[in-house]
Amino acid sequence: MRKKLADLLAFKANLFEVLIIAVLVALGVNVLSSGLMGYFNFTFFELIAIGFLLILTGALMLFRNASPMNNGKYKYKGIICIEENSGDLIDIIGYPFAEEVSRNIKALCAENKALHKIWHENPIGCIFDFDGNQSVKKKIKSNDLFIEAIEYYVIETLANHLSSHFNDDDSFSDEYLVKLDRKNIPNSLLGNRFIDTFSRPMEEREKFLGVESDPSEGKIVYAFGEDGAIFNHFEMVLPEKSSIVRESDSSISVITKRFKINFRPEFEGYNANFPSHFEKLYLGKDFLSVSNFAVGLIVTVDFSKRSLLSTKGWEYYWWLDSFLTKLEQSFSKDYFLSKISWHQNSAMILMAENRSKMERSNYSKSQKKCKSWV
Description:
This protein is α+β, with helices and mostly antiparallel strands. The protein has helices at 4-40, 44-70, 96-111, 113-121, 141-167, 187-190, 193-199, 278-283, 319-331, 333-339, 342-373, and strands at residues 71-83, 128-131, 134-137, 177-181, 222-224, 230-232, 235-239, 243-246, 252-255, 259-266, 290-303.
C-alpha cells in the first residue's frame, strides 16, 4: 500500500523548491527568448499565444506529476468459508475479516428470526435462471445481507481506527473535530441492518433485558447479550466539516475538506479457493464440507485540488495511510496466508505426514519379512 497522504505532503514540500527553480529558469529563458523574438520579428499577438501555450504546458506537467498522489483506486480480495451442513460462516482464526463478519452475522440472526431464515434457507451463492435462450442471474436475499455485513465491517473498522487516532492524543482539539452517531448519520446509512440493529439502545432490545447498566460507571459502548447478540454504540470521530454519505451506486463515501474516500463492497456469490489442504490442515474440516466464496472491496481515494495549497491542519488527516494499511491487512486473503506462513508451514506438515507414512510402510514390510523367515 502506497502512503498516499505522505506522498502528497512530500510533493507539497518539494513544490516550493520547484517553483523557485522555475522562476530562475523562466528569467533565463525570458532573456534568451527576447533575442529570438527580435530575430524572428513575431507580432504582439503571436507572442501572447506562444506565452500562453508555454504556461499551459507547464501547468499540465505540474498537475500530471501531482495526480498519482491525488487519486488512487485499490481492490482488496478476501474470502469466506461456509459450513455446508449448518450454513454458518466459519470463524477463521487469525483472519480478522472472517472472524468479525462471522460474529456479526450470528449476532444479527440471533435477534431477528426473519433474517435467520433468509440466511439459512436461502444461502449465499450464485444461481442462474433461464429465460428462453438467455440465462438470468437470480437475486438472492442472503447475498444482499452479506454485502451489508462487509459494509458494516469497513465502517466499524474505520470508526475504531479514528477513535484510537484522536482519543489517544491530547494534542487534538474537539473544536476541530465532529462526532457522528446514530442520531446524526443519514437515514440511508441506518438502512444497513447491522448498523441499525447493533446501535439500537439496549433497553429497546429483548436480548439485553438482563443487562443492567450503572450510570456511575460510565457509558456502555460495547456489550454482548443473549445468544451472542451485540450492542455497539456507533460513533465516528472525523475532522470538522466532514460527513458520511451513501452514493447513488449504493457505495459509501467519507467526505472531508482534504479528500474523499469511497468504499464499495463486491460480492457476486462466486466460489473461490484456498490453497490445497487448507481446509484440512488449518480449519480441521473435510474439503467437501466447506464452501468458499470470493469477496471484494474497492477503495477509492480522491484528494481535492485545494489540498495542495493547504499548509496547516494535516495532523487531523494523518490517519488515512495507517487506516488503508490496516484495512488491507485485515481483509486481504493473501496477506492472511502470508502472515501465518501458510506455504512454509503446510509444506513442513505434509513432509512430516509423508515421512510418517514411509516409516509405517517400511515397518510393515520388515514385519512381513520376519514372518517369512519364521
